[in-house]
Queue: 2 jobs
Job 1
Amino acid sequence: MSPELAALRRIAIVPAFNEEQNIARVVAELLDFDRGLDVLVVSDGSADQTAENAEAAGARVLRLPFNLGIGGAVQTGFRYAWEQGYELAVRCDGDGQHIPSELPKVVAPVIEGSADIAVGSRFAGGDGYQSSGARRIGIRLLAAVVSAIARQRVTDTTSGFQALNRRALGLFAADYPHDYPEVEGMVMTIRHRLRLVEVPVRMREREHGQSSITALRSVYYMAKVLTALFIGLFRRNVVPLEETT
Amino acid sequence: MIAAQTPLKVSIAATAASLVLLLVVFELVRSRRLRERYALLWLLTGIVLVVLSAWRGGLNTIAAQLGVRGYPPAVLFAVGLLFVILVLLHYSTVISRLSDENVVLAQRLAILELEVSSLAAQEPDPPNGEPVAAAAREAPTS
């Protein structure tokens, strides 16, 4: 761990919905990687032992009273991190697909100050992750659309493996897309003139349970995301939260 | 050519139905089962329908102006449908706002619960023995 990282108040935000099988390991891996990292699990209305297991593993747990969906859950973490004054937030999924040992690559641009948000990408040059045909086409299409809107090449628009500084936290704490937030979040970032970089990382396949996006839902997902992106182009920018000093 | 006329029976029935609608809305507001802000569109709907139903000459003229030659009461259907669509759209916006507010409430609740439980953990000797956050968490969630 770099000394710059150790000097920052830092938090890991882990959204989890019914991940009792995976969550303890995710938390343990994050803590093993960095003892000074506060791990915050956002249990999104989980009906199983997600919150208890996360707490037992050493995480703080935000318990949402009902399921808000991934965007609402992650935003809860952003709000908490913003209000508690964290200087660096990393976000990773509760299903174990993000590998904590890859974190240094993701946080590096943010620590150096060359980016406000850094996104770990499966496709920007790393290896170790293959997805099925239908999803792959969707991922390519989304990457092309977002790249065109952002006027910046991006490859992995659905990655939830991210590092954010306070500027980015202030934006997302104020407004974060609901259903499939990573794609729209990327566009929001660019529109607010925050600096976004992609970093190649490896990711794992899920170990237990089902991914929230099945092949059948992909078409519905694409239609929804593309509509949201299109309408988002005509939306007025929100005002990010300001520091109160 | 003489423009088509609204049959008297249709006018009477439509006026009666519109008045019933107005009365029902009025009663719902009076008994506080419907808020004024959500009743306004319904009241407007009722008033427009009453006027168009009762004012036969007006309905005939409007129908003729709109090019409805055969059967002027068709205008009543069109206007009624238009207002129903407006009311539904209005409800969609209301539901969206409510769910946005609901999200914020849930998020604040979760954050406050965590803050309360960490405060309770810092407190060496809670006044009544029972830690507040633990009690809050035991509350039924389903």
Job 2
Amino acid sequence: MGLDFTVVPKFMDVILLGALWTIAITVASAVVSFFGGILFAVIALYAPALVRLPFRAFAWLFMGTPLLLQLFLIYFGLVQIGIDLPAFVAGVIGLGLHFSVYNSELIQAAILSVDKGQMEAARTVGLSRGQALRKVIIPQAVRDVIPPIGNNMIALLKDSALVSVIGVSELTLSAQLAIGRTYRPFEFYVVAAVFYYIINLGMEAVLRRIERRVQAAK
Amino acid sequence: MDTELMLKVYPFFLQAAWVTIQLSILTTIIGLICGSLGAAARLSRLAIFRTLGAVYVSVIRGTPALIQLFILYFGGPQIGIQLDAFEAGVIGLGVNIGAYMTETIRGAIISVDKGQTEAARTLGMSGLQTMRRIILPQAAPLMIRPLGVNINALIKGTALVAAISVIELTYTAQRYIGSTYKPFEMFLLSGVLYMIIIYITGRGVAWLDRKARIV
């Protein structure tokens, strides 16, 4: 069986729709993982031990196990305790949590490297600890880790292909749908790869712009 | 938590962990080969090799590993590549991690001071001799830690081959989640095994790193 890319155009609308879903799930998960990362970093650094220690164990478990396994846990685990979420939401939770943990590691290190004098000064002018964190420390910390967080977001885009296994009809599953009809796996997976590559390039361009703007604001 | 069930099924998870270990070792070997070749190509004097190396890194790092696996395993037969799932997994993941290792190895090589090359060339060494006797011995210790990070990602990445039905840890967990409806227990079983593999690998890398620094 040779290659025949002429079957591709007929399924282009399916593929394009899948690409849109891939972008949607990537953006949604990126937002979750950004704010989740900040929240997790604050918990890991400042929460009372009773919260902090179980949380550390959770973070450790999430960093040491494959994303695919975590997706299975979240998707089937939530169903088991009676929460039947749409696959898309389960996918966003899974990707979002996974990358929150990774972002949190970056943000923790950044928070610790913000000059101590900043906290002291903020407290001196009358801000509470929480206010000082929120208004003074975290903005500076986050600004410093935008580039590595950007790298995590690129990884997130590629890992979003994994949510196809729990039935989110994004790019990978759309390609599989077309393959089911035509039995032409090579052609459609290559087309999917091309779309991922293009989205990847677009995302890198957006991240570079954000980085430049953050640099300028410094 | 259903510990009785966990005790009953854990031997299957141990077997699966052994498959994950084999996958990880073979993938590491292929990754290191691809990474070395990739780095050599990217640092070559010939533009054609440099371009090939850059395209390899960009395409592999710009697309999902899962899609690459699918192209190789499901699409391979269409272009005359017949592989079983395990072989496709090892080759696909190896070529994938090789692109990341290319950048790691290249990064270590170019971080060796330029004066070292200049001095070696002044003494009359050829380019190859300089690389082998001067640059690589200095670059190698620098690579160990970042390659360890690559290998850590690779071990977790082996879970992807569950999607092409290789019976490794994640596939086993998925199958038992489906048949027992105990997602948490199965996650814990496989998760602990992954962590053990990753922990031991991490210790090994740290040991190598220490060794390399003493010399």
